[in-house]
Amino acid sequence: MISSAYTFYTFHSRMLNLLTTIHHRLGEVQARHLQAPAPGLSKAYRVSVVQAMLALEGSVLDPLPVAELVSRPLAGSDQAALEVVNTHRALELLPVLDPHAVDDLRRVHGVLMHGLALDAGQFRTGPMDVLYGDPAPLRQAPADDLPVQVAELLHIVENDDTPPMIVSCMLHFALVYLRPFSAGNGRLARLWQRRVLMHHWPVFAYLPVEAFIRRTQPAYHAALEYADRQGDCGGFITYMLERIDEALAELLSMPDPARRGADRMTAFLQQPPGRWFRRKDYRARFPGIGTATASRDLCEAVAQGRLLREGTGRNARYMPAG
Question: Taking the model in full, what pTM does it have?
Answer without folding.
Answer: 0.80
